[in-house]
Design goal:
The complex is a heterotrimer of chains A (295), B (240) and C (404). Chain A has 295 residues and is mostly helical. Helices cover 71% and strands 3% of the residues of chain A. Chain B has a domain of 135 residues: Rossmann fold. Classes of the chains: A mainly alpha (295), B alpha/beta (240), C alpha/beta (404). Chain C: Belongs to the leucine-binding protein family.
Chain lengths: 295, 240, 404
């Protein structure tokens, strides 16, 4: 059997694929963060909570109303998106243009509040969510057993990432967003309803997070604290990719998933630290991030 | 409808306008009127408050008091995007070309606010350079081309009052001349233009009237036909 | 040795007190401080519902013991030894708290032990797993109730090896508790003729286990053991089920699993998993009756920790009642001398090292067909007698034992 650094090639291929799957989650989440940072110039510490809300909503909608996975895939992000827009309208808007630290503290506070309320209501052990029947089982790829659901996750997550990239880079609405990222005031001076654009953007960004949450519901433990763990990693991904870079967020997300996956194979105890190590190195060599524009 | 018949129509009336950036008080009671179809300049030294006046019209400064009427409508309570929809096109001093957009995207970015704007073909006829470089990144253009783009951008929207801030700044004489031709053409189309200009020799032959701004106030109003008579007064204000 | 000195002085003091047979409850109040993770990872296994269990014991006493009022205060330690230390210091030094109960995260319990000893007050640890609490970290000022890593490894690992699971792959949470459990399991596996062919230390917490499960799968071991807790364990079990670990012929052994974890997983994903528990709500009429009472107050079935908090508080109050004292050493001595017989334990006893030893149970998670209701989750396979379950005193490193 071919070995690479003492690891069989077959095992390594499996780990690479797993890395890409996890990377797809990172990509979805960091994409939303990057979109929000671009236009609102805020560091959305509530992003993890929105991811969690997406997953919790999926479970709660199913338990209370029998809403199935496919409907939840649209409905949960929509609900969370509306919630996000309300948050933007009633809270974030009031501190627009202030120092970053205010929005950071405010969104962090919102995250703690949402997390606390749900912890009181649902506990922390996790809510049960059954895998949709059509995804049960998997396929033997020869080098690994790939559960159907993971294959679906990688496909749909990358599709949504690509769709978002296309929308932002190639459409009129995306042009508004890109221009607003550079000079929102001038955009408004041209007659674009920037406050509405800001609300929609925040709503869209958290929708992406909630979408990732729905994807996570059948495979990860759904708890009110699930978002706080992943949030910090995703921030590191955004920093590595370069704040506000859309394509950069996607590519970096997948890349970091793979690097983390390889670390899990060669030296597991370092796997939660490796992304931060990469972040430190990138910040030293290229402070604007891999895909960030030179200031 | 000829523009001559609208000369009495007040497109813009500003009275007692004060504006503040944080603690600093920039405008100290501006009063001015611009009629439809007129080309009016705001002259003055750097820091006199000319650019701030344009921004104040767009509701882009910190705090304002007083009154700004556009087409007879009070706009002090309006958000910037509502002001734009009254037919006001603003071209900022730094040109505001978006680097993440190509030339054509820059050009088609501002929403159409009124009918009667120029079509993309008309614009490309007026500025053939922009057509040639329509897929280039906006900020890769030369300074003159960027200025053309910044102007062309608001012509497409149908805005009938243009606020132009220092459009000739730092440009080669041949480009400045071209811009002069463009302004004449726009004036002939009946557009109202408020021009903040450092280059008096560029502005003098184009304008119907001049306002001299100093320390955030209008200190002098000079009609085109009074120019030669008041040249010395003007020189003293502009420090020429 | 300050501990020896303290032991001597307290022994003298308690002798005097008992000799005087004088009721001496300071301020005529028994104040119990309940310290636990009220909002984080360990919230559900103890947390607010543990406080409810504690209050049930107080209720049983009618809120008074020997005429002295029983007061309960509580705080969230947020799993931080620092927060826990400052809270307990304030309780003991300013608020006249007599007993610190709850105590979940092992690091918290170890940090709090020092402060209890400094102030010569009593603590009852109900939630922690580390067996080192009554070994390296033993003090005359606490009692460790419910369970620890020693019987967890003993019960589950020996049972699985005996069933033919000879080669083991251990997924270990990379911190003190996981390491302790890993070494306990390795010892038990090897003692029973099995072999550990691989261990993998994963960061705490780990949201995605797919990579580790894949490695465990590739190892070809008979048994994949989980030396972790809480969300890490449930995540690992979910992922193992998704990747078909059991279908490929491997056995999954979770070493620390609480009822709330199994409830969260559901019998579909958790069926067949063997685990060791100190108590289960559906064992007999007595446990069921108490659990019904608990459920009325909290809406859920109690974990072994909830039951242990109730039982230990009850035993503590009985000791206060019998001795008429709230002095830590007097009460602890009485508790050590009195066998525990309540709905939690039969013939439980507290040893010199502070370890409460009682029968433990090897349980298996029911299949969906067997499980008749939401909380009908375990079937008890075997009772592990107290003496077999816990670390024998002969192996103890606790100075309290040798000085006996």
């Amino acid at each position: 059997m071919t070995m690479i650094f003492g690891v069989p090639l077959a095992v390594l291929s499996g780990q690479l694929l797993i890395g890409v799957i996890n990377g797809a989650f990172y990509a979805l989440l960091s994409l939303g963060l990057a979109v929000i940072f671009g236009l609102l110039k805020i560091i959305n510490f509530a992003h993890g909570a929105m991811y969690m809300l997406g997953a919790m909503a999926t479970v709660i909608l199913f338990d209370a109303l029998g809403v199935n996975y496919w409907v939840a895939l649209f409905l949960a992000p929509l609900l969370v998106g509306v919630f996000g827009m309300l948050v933007e309208y009633f809270l974030l808007r009031r501190i627009a243009g202030q120092d970053h630290i205010y929005s950071l503290l405010l969104t962090f506070g919102i995250a703690l509040l949402v997390q606390g309320v749900l912890t009181n209501l649902y506990g922390v052990s996790g809510l049960r969510y059954a895998m949709p029947d059509m995804f049960k089982g998997g396929i033997n790829l020869g080098f690994m057993f790939l559960p159907y659901y993971r294959a679906w996750v990688i496909g749909v997550a990358l599709l949504v990432c690509f769709g978002t990239w296309f929308m932002i880079e190639k459409t009129k609405l995306g042009a508004y967003l890109r221009a607003g990222t550079e000079d929102a005031q001038l955009m408004q001076g041209f007659g674009v309803n920037v406050p509405l654009l800001v609300s929609l953007t925040y709503g869209f960004g958290v929708m992406l997070a909630a979408f990732a949450g729905v994807l996570a519901a059948p495979i990860y433990s759904v708890t009110p604290v699930m978002g706080s763990h992943i949030l910090i990693v995703v921030f590191a991904v955004v920093v590595i990719g370069g704040m506000g870079s859309i394509g950069g967020a996607i590519i970096t997300g997948v890349l970091m998933g793979v690097i983390e996956g390889l670390t899990k194979t060669f030296y597991p105890p370092a796997s939660s630290a490796v992304i931060f190590l990469v972040m430190v190195v990138v910040l030293m060599v290229r402070p604007t991030g891999l895909f960030g524009k030179e200031a | 409808m000829t523009h001559a018949s609208n000369r009495e129509y007040e497109q813009l009336r500003i009275s007692g306008l004060h504006a503040f950036y944080g603690e600093s008080h920039i405008l100290h009671g501006i009063d001015l009127v611009v009629h439809r179809g007129e080309l009016v300049t705001l002259l003055g030294r750097n820091g006199a408050g000319r650019s701030t006046t344009l921004k104040a019209i767009m509701n882009m400064v910190g705090r304002r008091t007083g009154s700004i009427m556009v087409n007879g409508e009070e706009t002090m309570a309006c958000a910037p995007h509502h002001i734009a929809r009254l037919g006001v096109g603003y071209c900022p001093e730094h040109r505001g070309i978006f680097s993440s957009l190509n030339v054509q995207e820059n050009l088609t970015l501002p929403p159409v606010v009124r009918s009667g704007g120029m079509s993309l073909e008309e614009i490309y006829t007026m500025f053939p350079n922009l057509y040639e470089r329509r897929f280039s990144q906006g900020t890769k253009l030369s300074g003159g081309e960027q200025q053309m783009l910044a102007m062309a951008r608001i012509l497409r929207t149908g805005a009938n009052m243009l606020l132009l801030d220092e459009i000739t700044e730092g440009l080669a004489p041949v480009i400045v001349e071209k811009l002069g031709d463009v302004l004449v053409a726009l004036k002939n189309k009946g557009l109202t233009i408020v021009l903040v200009e450092q280059n008096f020799h560029f502005a003098a032959p184009l304008a119907d009237r001049h306002y001299v701004v100093e320390h955030g106030q209008i200190v002098e109003e000079i009609r085109a036909d009074e120019l030669s008579a008041k040249q010395s007064v003007l020189d003293s204000y502009l420090g020429v | 040795m300050t501990m020896m000195k303290k032991l001597l002085t307290s022994a003298v003091a308690s002798a005097l007190m008992v000799g005087g047979a004088q009721a001496d409850i300071s301020d005529n109040t028994i104040k119990i401080g309940y310290l636990a993770d009220m909002s984080g990872t360990y919230r559900d296994l103890a947390g607010p519902n543990g406080l409810a269990a504690l209050n049930m014991a107080v209720e049983d006493f009618g809120g008074k013991v020997n005429g002295a009022k029983i007061e309960v205060v509580s705080a969230d330690d947020r799993n931080s030894p620092d927060v826990a230390s400052s809270t307990v210091r304030r309780w003991l030094e300013n608020d006249d708290v007599d007993l610190v109960a709850g105590l979940v995260a092992s690091s918290v319990s170890i940090a709090v032990s020092d402060i209890l000893e400094e102030n010569d007050k009593l603590g009852i640890v109900s939630g922690s797993a580390a067996s080192s609490i009554t070994n390296e970290h033993c003090t005359p000022n606490h009692i460790h109730y419910v369970y620890d890593t020693y019987p967890l490894a003993n019960g589950t690992a020996s049972a699985v090896v005996k069933e033919g699971g000879k080669s083991w792959f251990i997924l270990t949470a990379d911190y003190a508790f996981g390491h302790a459990l890993e070494s306990d399991v390795t010892r038990v596996v090897e003692a029973n003729g099995g072999e550990v062919i691989g261990t993998l230390r994963h960061p705490f917490p780990t949201p995605d286990f797919s990579s580790f499960i894949l490695q465990a799968q590739a190892s070809g071991a008979d048994v994949v053991a989980l030396a972790n807790a809480g969300a890490d364990t449930t995540n690992a079990i979910n992922t193992a089920s998704e990747f078909g670990i059991t279908q490929s012929g491997q056995t999954l052994a979770a070493l620390l699993l609480f009822l709330t974890d199994v409830h969260a997983l559901g019998v579909e994903a958790a069926q067949g998993i063997q685990l060791t528990t100190g108590w289960y709500w559906d064992m007999n009429d007595e446990t069921r009756a108490w659990s019904d009472r608990f459920m009325e107050k909290t809406g859920v079935r109690p974990t072994m920790v909830h039951a242990g908090i109730y039982s230990s508080t009850l035993q503590y109050l009985k000791a206060v009642e019998a001795t008429g004292s709230d002095d830590a050493q007097t009460v602890r001595k009485h508790m050590m001398e009195t066998p525990i017989n309540d709905m939690f334990a039969k013939n439980g006893r507290i040893r010199a090292d502070g370890r409460m030893v009682h029968d433990m149970y090897l349980a298996e998670v029911k299949t969906p067909a067997e499980s008749k209701s939401e909380w009908d989750l375990y079937k008890i396979l075997r009772t592990i007698p107290a003496d077999e379950a816990y670390r024998p005193l002969s192996e103890s490193k606790c100075p309290l034992v040798s000085s006996k």
